[in-house]
Amino acid sequence: LAFLAGGAPRSPSYGAAGLTLPYVERPTRLGQSELYSPIPLGLGTWSWGNKLLWGYDESQDASIAATWRAAVDGGVVFFDTGDSYGTGRLEGRAETLLGACRASSPKQNKRLIYGTKLAAYPWRLTPDAFVAALRASLERFGTSKIEVAQAHWSARNYFPPQDRAILEGLARCYEAGLCDAVGLSNFGPVALREAAAFFGDRGVPIALCQVQFSLLSTQPEDTGLLDVCRELGVTPVAYSPLALGALAVAGNDDHSQRPAGPRGFLFDQVLPGATALTGVIRDVARERGKTPAQVCLNWTIKKGCLPIVGARTPARVRENLGACGWRLS
C-alpha cells in the first residue's frame, strides 16, 4: 500500500514547448541465456484448455489464435505454457494451441521465445523421464527445439531424489540440443541456489525462475527469493500477477465481472479483506489514467519481474500491454 500510495510522478517537461520525455523500455535479458524480450511482459496460457478453473471451450480457439496475434503485434515475444495445461483429455492442449499459433507465422519465430514447464508427476522419477516429457511437448509444438525448458515445481520438500532427476533431466535436454536454456518454477530461495550450483557446474544457462507474485501474494519478496534471483542473474517471472484476475475485477467499480465457479469462490474469500488495497489501486489508476490491471502489472515490473498474464481475447492483451512504457514511483 505504501508503495502504491507513494504517488504517481508527472513526466518531466523540457523546454518552453513543454515537451515530455516518454519512458523507454529496455530489452530484458532472460537470465543467463542469450534470449531477450523487448518489453517486460509475457503471455501465459494456463487458461488454454482448462475447463475447471477457466471455463475453456473449443469454440474459443479462434479467439485464442487472435489473442496470440495481438500479443505478437504488440511486441510480446515470451509465451509460457506447460505440459499439464488442459483438463482431463485436454491435457497438453495449451501446447498444441500455442504450437498451431507458432506454425501460422514461421517468419516471426526467430524473434519469439517459447517456454514450457514439465510437471513433476510422481511417475517421472528419472532424468530420462523428463527428457521424454520434453520430446512429447515438442511433438505437440510441432518443432524439434524450444527456447526454454522448465521444471514446473520442485520436489525438494517431499521427495528430494526426484528433484535431482528433474535437474539432471533438464541438463540433458539442454545438452541434447532440445532447448536453448532451462528455467525453474515454484522453487524457493534454497532450492534455487542448489539448482544454480548444479547447472553452473554443467554449463547450463538458467533463463528464469517463475514465482507467484502479485499485490496479494508477496511471498517471493518477503522470503528473499527476488534478491536471490538478482544475485544469481536469473530473471524472476511473475505468474498470476493479477491473482487469477481478482485484482483486475476488484479494482473496477463494476463487480459483475466476477467469474462463476472456483475462481468466483476464491474471489469471495479473498477480496472482502483487501478493500484497502483495492481502493488504493483504483485511486492510483485514476491518477495515472490507467486501468487497475495495468497498475498491478506495472507494480510487478517495478519490482524487477517480467509478469506473464493470461489472456484469451485480443482486447485483454491490448489492456495488458498498457502496463508497459511507464513506471510507478
Layout of strands and helices, then pairs:
Elements: H1 2-5, E1 13-14, E2 19-20, E3 28-29, E4 36-37, E5 42-44, H2 51-54, H3 61-73, E6 78-82, H4 93-104, E7 113-118, H5 127-141, E8 146-151, H6 160-175, E9 179-185, H7 189-202, E10 206-212, H8 219-222, H9 225-232, E11 235-239, H10 246-250, H11 261-270, H12 275-288, H13 292-302, E12 306-310, H14 314-321
Q: How would you describe this structure to a colleague?
A:
The chain has 329 residues and is of the alpha/beta class. 42% of the residues lie in helices and 16% in strands. The longest helix is centred in the middle third of the chain and has 16 residues, at 160-175.
Which key phrases capture this entry?
globular, alpha/beta, single chain, 14 helices, disordered N terminus, 8-stranded parallel barrel
Short description:
This protein has helices at residues 2-5, 51-54, 61-73, 93-104, 127-141, 160-175, 189-202, 219-222, 225-232, 246-250, 261-270, 275-288, 292-302, 314-321; strands spanning 13-14, 19-20, 28-29, 36-37, 42-44, 78-82, 113-118, 146-151, 179-185, 206-212, 235-239, 306-310.
Total helix count? Answer: 14
Strand content: 15-25%
SS-derived structural category: alpha/beta
> What is the helical fraction, as a range of percent?
40-55%
Regions with little confidence, pLDDT below 50 for 5+ residues: 1-20
> On the 0-100 scale, what is the average pLDDT?
91
Quaternary structure of the protein: single chain
- Distance from first to last alpha carbon: 12 Å
Principal-axis shape? globular
Give helix and strand order, one letter per element, not per position. Answer: HEEEEEHHEHEHEHEHEHHEHHHHEH
Give the biggest beta sheet.
Answer: 8 strands, parallel, barrel
| Biggest sheet strand line-up | 5-6-7-8-9-10-11-12
Radius of gyration: 20 Å
The total count of strands amounts to 12
